[in-house]
Records
---
Amino acid sequence: MTLDTWMDEVERRAREVDSGEVEMIPGDQVLQSLHKIDPEIEKAWAKETRRRLDDYEQGKIEALPGEQFNKEIQELNEQESDKTK
């Protein structure tokens, strides 16, 4: 499911809810109702996360400051956007 499709589904479901019926829908419940989590994928991500943390702690990789990371991501997004024009 693409992000656009997911957002369309969130919007569609939100419109179906009577605002007087629900004060707040917890985010996890919304996500779980829209996208069932595959336990195998979750295990794979947990393994990858552990590998990356171990690499960082052993000095094999370096962390980027958040501002630098955000800047680089923004630049990549702009490059991709330019390619589609």
Note: Helices lie at 3-16, 27-34, 39-57, 66-83.
---
Amino acid sequence: MVWERMERLLALLDLHMERNEHVPFDPRIHEAVAGEDMDGNGPVLVRDIIQPGFRTSAGVIRPAKVVVSKSNPSESAKTSGDPS
């Protein structure tokens, strides 16, 4: 309840928190502080959030500090429900 109220207040101030996991790594909004399972040949994904980042409509205030990993395309298809 308190967290939801804080997020609404931040949104009113045009301040948004970056804290999504399992999304493609984007160096404009993420800062990779560690990498795990980097032997795969798939896309680099955000595995864990160490410290959330903040952005406004004008740009990034602080990038999110994240742990990244590479997944194999076959593993990504299994988790996304793709039957191929």
Note: Residues 80-84 have pLDDT under 50 and may be disordered.
---
Amino acid sequence: MQDQQLYLNTFIEEAMSPVETEYCQLFLLPYFDPMDARIYLQEEQGWSDEEVKNVRTLADAMQALLPLLVARFALGKKRILVTHFAVTASGQDPQDLTSETSSTVGGLCDSECD
């Protein structure tokens, strides 16, 4: 599908290889559960049992995964994160979604994001 410029990621590890254009990188991060993140961090990043125990929520998982994405940033390019979550700014209440699971990740930015 990449020949037709249609990109779809369904696994966390696929998000670690951004879609690149001349001017930007698109990081396509699919929906995942904290368990998916723990498995990825342990099997692909070498985290210990003790380290992955701290990844309990989606926010914990995003806090663990975002630095891995940032490490792949190319200098001089804009970066876009496309994800299947509703992200709220730090300190704001998440929106109610019509979903059987919680798909919000809040508080990912600090004062440097403004």
Note: The chain has four helices and five strands.
